[in-house]
């Protein structure tokens, strides 16, 4: 990290996954919390790689990710240990994506949702 002082921790993490695939399994196995808030190019295929590489992932913050929607939520719902997710102002998320998280993430304890246009009363209460 000292070699790249301008990178934040999350940017460094993503860069390491792309560059150092041989050693990623060690530190990915230890990762429990991931903050991707305000990431502009977050897509399902990147999340799929993260979920597969980080089996102990318990908390994820994808708030304010403008491209985060139902497909990305479905991918993230495969994180078996997920206990907490923050999805504030992910404007492409709908009731369908919300349902996938609720149904598949059996250990989920806390979810943050704010500023939604396409999540209805049925999605919250259903």
UniProtKB/TrEMBL annotation:
Which SUPFAM superfamilies does the protein's record reference? RNI-like
For this protein, the record's InterPro entries field holds: LRR_dom_sf
What is this protein's record name? COI1 F-box domain-containing protein
